[in-house]
Structure formats: structure tokens, C-alpha cells
Amino acid sequence: MLQDESDLSLIIAHIVQKLKGSNLYSQLERQAWGSWEKRILKSLNSMCTELSIPLARKRPVGDQKELLSKWNEMGTDEPDLSLFRPVYAPKDFLEVLINLRNPNYENGDSLSFRSHLGLIQVPLRVKDIPELKEFFVELGLNTGQLGIDDSTQVPPELFENEHVRIGQKVLAHQDSAAAQQYIRQGSPTALRAELWTLILNISSQPEDILYYEQLKTNVIQHDLLVDSLIYKDVKLTASNDDYYFVFEDYLYQVLLCFSRDTSVLAHFAYNSASPPKSYIRGKLGLEDYAVFYPPNGVIPFHGFSMYVAPLCFLYHEPSKLYQIFREMYVRFFFRLHSISSHPSGIVSLCLLFETLLQTYLPQLFYHLREIGAQPLRISFKWMVRAFSGYLATDQLLLLWDRILGYNSLEILAVLAAAVFAFRAVNLMEVTSLAAAEAVLADLSTLKVMPLLQIFLFATVT
Questions:
Q1: 322: helix, coil or strand?
Q2: Potential cystine with 306: which of 160, 224, 388, 417 (Cβ 3.0-4.6 Å)?
Q3: Spatial separation of the C-alpha atoms in residues 94 and 353, rounded to whole Å
Q4: Backbone torsion region of residue 367, taken as left when φ is above 0, otherwise alpha when ψ lies between -120 and 50, otherwise beta
Q5: φ, ψ for residue 437, nearest 5 deg
Q6: Are 417 and 455 a contacting pair, CB within 8 Å?
Q7: H-helix or E-strand containing 27?
Q8: How far from each other are the two terminal CA atoms of the chain, in whole angstroms?
Q9: Sign of the CA dihedral running 387, 389, 395, 399
């Protein structure tokens, strides 16, 4: 009997092992997200109360006409936003992730995880360097890459000319899968907009343009509290950025329309989060009077507009820019600010980053930990924003090429670890978190592809 029980325990243990990162953990995810969501909504509601403004209202006709007349120059508008504050910033979200615990692992039954000394305490399965090498095999030292200036095998201009020729062929055939494979080696600047459109399966049909116009009409007619949060975010981030300030008007147009787009709600079907709800005044708690707020279910946080800003370099027609951003969001970006056990989810990325550093740069990891400068406290903001606003734009687009090519955000964690490796000598000399942050304050001169290649393929493992 005892033998049977131990066999049964073993079988159950195997099943649990297989289910790690799947629905077994969805309850934990939903509970964690639920309490975080309540905090966000509380912050939003208290802002309404403090400022005596509703979550939503119909704009007076005069306001509608004024907004319509300056739709293409909203950046010139200077509303008083001093009383508005971002609902949350990435560092607030990091605190939630640090406090995540899986009750199934209360007794630390994962020996390998017990030695994990990072901030993330949820034991998820993440790739090690040999697995990452296999996954990102096309980034290898012997494969031609756009973003590398000194390829030893083939002179860069020869590779580029041939790569452009193949890219044109891929576009001529309109083969989305071929485009995804091709872009793993980087996209030529002239072909990038078309290649991304093909990979994301975006086709600008008349009905797509009409849909965008309907969203615009909704913005003109209704004023939402989140509109002020969007204005504030653009003013605090993109408007102060040397690369992106010129796109301020585009950012308002895209983000205001995005907040009204109920089709975005569909991504919650494969997201452990649920869209936030509000209640019609006087009907609090009555589900029949509950509405999703904002209509797309996404409350913007500090830095959210930086998901859109780089796309403005590629797309200049508002409805096309809008479609590309929406698809990038529901495929990738939502994972960077929601709690899940998905390999591209922010929890897994944090754990992958910490594991890579602890395993392959242990001296650096322990040194930073000892001086109270946990590496994740520095790198988290880079990953949450997919490095937008931190890298030079040409480098950022080369990085996003690979996100699309591999249909994965794991490369963000690898690059974050590679940045620490690159600045390791300086970091070993710092004695405080502030000093470590200063060493890593400016990433605008970094070249993405050499960093990734050195870290993945030239590191002794």
C-alpha cells in the first residue's frame, strides 16, 4: 500500500512538473491580478473624487467642434494636467511581482529554485543559454545580420545587397511565414514597414479605415478620464524624447482611439487578467450596470505611449499606424504589464534575466545584491517598455525585428542581461544602487546585435 502511495505521489509530482506554467497556475495569476486591478481602479476612482470629474461624459457641442478642428495638432494644446497623476508606474508593478508567491512551493520543494537569489520568487521554467542558443540560432556568429558592422564571413555591403534582394522577393510573394523567418536576420530600413505589415497580417481595407474613423468620432463625442492620463503620459515621456517629440500629434490620435476600441477586449481571452469594470452612478456592485472602463479594458500607465512612438518612424498614415500598434499590443505588449506564467510574460522575463545573471555572471550578481542594487530594479523599466525610449531608434527597430521574427519577447531579458555583462567592469566598482543606476543610465550608444551575439554565442557556458 505504501509503495502504491509513493508511486502515486511520484506520478502526481510528474504531472505537476508538466503543468508548470500552465492552467495550474492560472488561479494564482488571477488572484494576483485581481488585487492589483483593485488597486489601479481605486487609484482611478479616488482621482475622480478628488478632482470632481466623472470617468466619462459626453462632450458639449462646442468642445466637440474645437477638438475636431485641432485633431491634427493636439500637441499644441496645453491643458492643465498638474492635478492628474499616472495611475501607476513600472516600479509599482515590480513591487507586485516581487511579492508574488506560489502556495504550491511554500516549502521550497524545488531545490534548484531554492538557490535563486533574485527578487522573483515564482519558480517558472525559463531557458538557459544552451536552449537560448538553439532558439535564437539565426543570431549566431556565422550568420549574416543587419546591425553588425564587421561581419567576418561576408563584407557587410554584399550581405546587405543580397538581403535586400531576398526581402523584395518575400514581399512580392506576400508570404507571412517567410517574412517572419527572413526578419530574424534584421530588416532593411526601406522594407521594414511592409515586412512588419505582412507579418502582422495587416491589410488596410476600406472597412479598416472606416473603423478607425468611427473610433475617432467616439473620441470627439465623449470625454474620458483616461484621455487626461494619455495626455499626461505623452507630455511626460515622448514629448521630452529627442527622437519622438515630433510625433506628439500621432501619439494622441492613436492612443485616444485605442482607449475606445472594444475589439482589444478580445485579448483578455488568452490573458489571465480581466478588463477593469466600472459601474453606472448609483449602481455600484450591480453586475447588470457594470461597464468595461476604459472601453478597451487597458488603463495606461506611465510610459505606455512609448509602445507607439517607434512605430511612427515607419507608418505615417494614422489608420495604418493605428492597426499596426493595436496588433503589436494584442500580440506582444500586453504581456509586459500583466501577470502570467507565459514564457513571454513579464514574470518569466524577470526570472530569465535574473537567472542568466546569477548563472553566468555570479560575481557581478552577488556584488550588486550585496550593495542593495538588485539588478532587476534597474532593468525592469527597460523590459516593461521593450527598451523603447532607452535605445537609439535604429537599434530599437532592429530589436523589435527579432521580437516579430521569433514571435517572442524573451530577447528583451537576454538583451537586459547582455547590457549588464557589457558594463560589468564598471558595475563591479560601484557601492550603491544610485551609482549602479548611473553606470546604466544611458543606453543610447549601445549596439543591440553585437551585445546579443557576444552574450549568447561568445560566452563560455
A1: helix
A2: 388
A3: 14
A4: alpha
A5: -65, -35
A6: yes
A7: helix 26-51
A8: 45
A9: positive
Q: Is the pTM here over 0.85, yes or no?
A: yes
Closest CA to 37 of 45, 48, 49: 45
- CA geometry: angle 16, 19, 23, nearest 5 deg: 120
Question: b/e per residue, 354-383, with b = 16+ CB within 10 A?
Answer: bbbbbebbeebbebbbeeebbbbbbbbbbb
DSSP element (H, E) containing 200? none
DSSP bridge pairs for 57: 223
Cα-trace Rg, the chain: 23
57 Cβ partners below 8 Å, 6+ apart? Answer: 222, 223
The answer to whether residues 443 and 344 touch, using CB atoms and an 8 Å cutoff, is: no
| d(C-alpha 137, C-alpha 132), whole Å | 8
C-alpha to C-alpha distances, 420 to 108, 167, 338, nearest whole angstrom = 29, 34, 25
The values of phi and psi at residue 328, to 5°, are: -60, -40
Q: Which helix (H) or strand (E) holds 388?
A: none
Q: Please tell me what DSSP assigns to residue 152.
A: S
